[in-house]
Specification:
Elements lengths: L3 E7 L2 E7 L10 E10 L3 E10 L5 E7 L6 E7 L8 E4 L3 E5 L4 E3 L8 E4 H25 L3 H25 L5 E7 L5 E3 L4 E2 L9 H4 L3
Antiparallel strand pairs: 1-2, 3-4, 4-5, 6-11, 6-13, 7-10, 7-12, 8-9, 8-11
C-alpha cells in the first residue's frame, strides 16, 4: 500500500511528507517530527525524523532549503585534531574509506546526520561490530568445516577493519574519506576538502560564431 502524501508548511518551506507511513522493521505506525538548523558553510537545513511507535526504529531525512548541486569530495585526515572536521550526510550521500574497504551507501533506510569525522568513524565501527556479531552466529550454525573456514576468513577481515578504524579514531594513522552526494545533500565542511567533480567550462557562444 502506497502511503498518502500531504504538503505541510514548515519554517516557510513546503515539504511533502507521508501520512500513515509504516515502519520498515515491524509495519507499525510511525511518528514524524520536524526541526530546522542553520549549518555553517552549508545553510539552513530541515531534518525530518521518523520514529516507530512500537519497535523504536528511527530514521532521519535531511532537506537543505537552498537547491544544491552534486558534490564529490575527498579529505585526507592526518592527525587527531582533524577528526573534529564537520560533515553533513544526507540520504543521497555515500561515505567511503578505501583504506578499509568500507562505505555507507544511500538508500531507503539511509540516515541523515550532521557530525564530525570521528562520528563517521564510530558509525563505520558500529557497522563492523554488527557484522562481527552476525558472523559469530553463522559460525555457530555452520554445518561443515569448509563453511566454518570461510566464515572465519570473513571474521578475520572484519577484525582487521576494526583495528584500522580504532587507529584512525585514536589519530594514530592517516586516511582519506570520500563523500559523494548526487543531490548535493552532503558536504565535508572544511577548506581542506578537495572537490573531485570538475565543473564544465563556460563557453562563449558569440566567440564561436563566424564573423
Amino acid at each position: 500500500m502506497i502511503p498518502k502524501q500531504k504538503v505541510i508548511e514548515f519554517e516557510n518551506k513546503k515539504i511533502i511528507v507521508n501520512e500513515g507511513l509504516t515502519c520498515p522493521a515491524c509495519s507499525s505506525d510511525m511518528n514524524i517530527s520536524y526541526t530546522a538548523e542553520n549549518i555553517p558553510h552549508f545553510g539552513k537545513t530541515h531534518f525530518i525524523g521518523y520514529a516507530c511507535t512500537k519497535c523504536n526504529y528511527k530514521n532521519t531525512e535531511l532537506i537543505p532549503v537552498d537547491e544544491k548541486e552534486p558534490i564529490e569530495q575527498s579529505v585526507k585526515i592526518e592527525n587527531e585534531k582533524e577528526l573534529s572536521i564537520k560533515i553533513v550526510r544526507g540520504t543521497d550521500t555515500t561515505l567511503e574509506i578505501k583504506e578499509v574497504g568500507i562505505s555507507l551507501e544511500p538508500g531507503a533506510r539511509a540516515s541523515a546526520f550532521y557530525t564530525n569525522i570521528e562520528g563517521v568513524l564510530q558509525r563505520f565501527k558500529g557497522s563492523v561490530l554488527s557484522m562481527q556479531r552476525y558472523y559469530k552466529i553463522l559460525e555457530s550454525e555452520a554445518k561443515s568445516d569448509n563453511e566454518r573456514k570461510e566464515i572465519k576468513l570473513v571474521q578475520k577481515k572484519l577484525i582487521d577493519k576494526e583495528k584500522k578504524l580504532n587507529r584512525y579514531i585514536d589519530g594514530k594513522a592517516p586516511f582519506t574519506l570520500i563523500l559523494r552526494a548526487e543531490k548535493g545533500y552532503g558536504k565535508v565542511l572544511s577548506p581542506k576538502a578537495k572537490n573531485l567533480l570538475k565543473k564544465p567550462k563556460k563557453t562563449n557562444k558569440m566567440a564561436n560564431k563566424k564573423k
